[in-house]
Design a protein that fits this description.
mainly alpha; about 75% helix
């Protein structure tokens, strides 16, 4: 098994060398030109995971692995780092952050492991920006909010009981409604942001991934809405020509299909 993995890795590195030398498109690529492609590939992997598509997951993992190898090749050409340095670096990091496996620290639960992980990250990097300095600026807002909540909680800044978060959610809903009545768009936007942040923290406290939960709802809505359009078309009509009551009837019929 080990020989097979090593051979596959060596083959990929060799293919990358060849493409960088002989392919006009690959020769032109830079860190900056690959950045958006990497983001796109990451989301394609997320789609495959959401769909439970194992063949898709395998394919998208390969695409992401190619990007890791490509960036490593660019780093090697710049004299900054190579693939071996990248791989050794992550191995060193994993060993350092798992003292309960490689050292004498005891961690019997996932929560203890996570708390140790965050503490070691902060100690190792000694970030001047503090606990929240490790949250990437380019993360999507929902994912960033979740990570901010996690890191703040790891420092002890969290609700004592998870049920207490609902008081904060209700408070933020009331503030949104108040600002909507005031007519201030800027203030209303700010309060909606606070409400979203509170709801995302509620998700965290109850072990729900908000990004995954919302995406499943998106897919469900698309499925039901498409069914509505199909039912309307079967009757020779279009949704925008129907009343809300008629559309609601189609919506309920679409729900019953599931």
């Amino acid at each position: 098994m080990e020989d097979k993995r090593l051979a596959a890795t060596a083959r990929l590195l060799e293919v990358m060398d060849t493409l960088r030398e002989k392919c006009p498109w690959d020769r032109e690529q830079t860190f900056e030109s690959l950045r958006n492609c990497t983001i796109e590939e990451t989301y394609e992997l997320v789609d495959a995971i959401t769909d439970g598509n194992m063949d898709g997951i395998k394919e998208e993992l390969g695409d992401l692995l190619l990007h890791v190898v490509f960036y490593s090749k660019l780093g090697d050409e710049a004299g900054a780092f190579d693939y071996a340095a990248v791989a050794d670096g992550v191995c060193d990091k994993l060993i350092y952050r798992h003292p309960h496996v490689y050292g004498e620290i005891h961690a019997d639960t996932p929560a203890e492991v996570k708390a140790n992980w965050e503490a070691l990250k902060l100690r190792k990097k000694n970030r001047k920006s503090g606990t929240l300095g490790g949250v990437p600026r380019s993360l999507p807002a929902m994912v960033k909010a979740y990570r901010i909540g996690e890191k703040a909680a790891a420092s002890g800044f969290d609700w004592q009981k998870r049920e207490d978060v609902w008081d904060k959610v209700r408070e933020e809903i009331a503030e949104v409604e108040a600002e909507m009545r005031s007519g201030s768009h800027e203030a209303t936007e700010a309060e909606f942001g606070d409400l979203f942040f509170a709801l995302i923290n509620a998700c965290r406290l109850y072990g729900v991934d908000p990004e995954s939960a919302l995406e499943k709802t998106n897919k469900k809505f698309i499925r039901r809405f498409n069914s509505m359009e199909e039912r309307a078309a079967a009757g020779g009509r279009m949704l925008h020509d129907m009343t809300l009551d008629e559309m609601e009837e189609l919506w309920q019929a679409a729900k019953k299909e599931e």
